[in-house]
Write a structure and sequence with these properties.
about 100 residues, five-stranded mixed beta sheet, 5 strands
Length: about 100
């Protein structure tokens, strides 16, 4: 299993980025979460088989139509999350 923490910056909020990640994660049977950050970036944890996580990373670098991904910071992590799904976490600040 591989677990990664991502910070995706650029034009990535308000363009369906989180929804696309959720759909793809569900298709690929990945777990974790994604959320908007107050600095305009998107943050995520992705957990799954290494090959499939790497496939998801490629999708994150591309982004859905209307996005302009500038950087994807990737850190491999150890997670003890026993989640069985991929969640969108709602941001409670100024941006959603």
């Amino acid at each position: 299993m591989k677990s990664v923490h991502l910070i995706i910056s650029g034009l990535v909020q308000g363009v369906g980025f989180r929804s696309r990640m959720k759909r793809q994660a569900d298709i690929l049977k990945l777990t974790g979460w994604v959320k908007n950050r107050p600095d305009g970036a998107v943050e995520a944890i992705i957990v799954g088989q290494e090959r499939i996580v790497n496939e998801m990373l490629d999708l994150c670098r591309e982004g859905p139509p209307g996005t302009a991904v500038e950087t994807v910071k990737i850190d491999e992590i150890t997670t003890h999350d026993n989640s069985t799904e991929f969640k969108i976490i709602k941001f409670s600040g100024n941006k959603t």
